[in-house]
Amino acid sequence: MESTNNSTKIKKCAGKDNLQRLNYLYQACNAITTENETNHLASVMYSNLLVAISKKAVQRMDIEVKRTICKGCRCMLLAGITCKVRIKKKHSIWTCTKCNTAKVFPAQNPDYVPWNLQDDSVVETLQYK
After folding, report:
1. Whether pTM exceeds 0.70
2. Whose CA is closest to 25, among 10, 13, 42?
3. How far apart are CA 94 and CA 40, in angstroms?
4. Using CA atoms, how far apart are residues 72 and 13, in angstroms rounded to an integer?
5. Following CA atoms 9, 15, 19, 21 in sequence, which dihedral angle do they give, to the nearest 10 degrees?
């Protein structure tokens, strides 16, 4: 008698628990930063954990997540709240108000889309229930 096991057909995501932890820490960091400015240290602690877990698990963070974390003090960069955004001819410059570290993003081509956000880069999409 052959037994058919449906669980062998379901694909599993490697590091799903780490992805969930990273997602939770990013949401907590964002919520604390937008709530009030007095909890700055808690927000920095969560973003430090976020970066440390992604490095330890060798899990790449999304480009939109990486762009919103300061490389100097690791606080959440939110335009008008924790950073100043200046748009020049070919660049947008995000300057952290806590440590004055600047991030420069090219703004030359308005149709530019990073490679990991293009349709060609997606190999497979997993659905979780």
Report:
1. yes
2. 42
3. 18
4. 32
5. 120
DSSP 85: E
How far CA 96 is from CA of 25, 53, 60, 84, 114, in Å, comes to: 20, 23, 23, 7, 23
C-alpha distance from residue 112 to each of 23, 79, 85, 108, 118 (Å): 26, 21, 19, 8, 10
- Give 79's strand partners: 83
State which H helix or E strand residue 30 sits in.
Answer: helix 16-35
The candidate with the shortest Cα–Cα distance to 77, out of 66, 62, 61, 88, is: 66
In the structure encoding, which two tokens stand for residue 5, read together?
A: 């096991």
CB burial readout 35-60, b (16+ within 10 A) else e: eeeeebeebbbbbbbbbebbeeeeee
Q: How confident is the model over 55-85, as pLDDT tens digits? A: 998 888 888 888 899 999 998 898 888 899 9
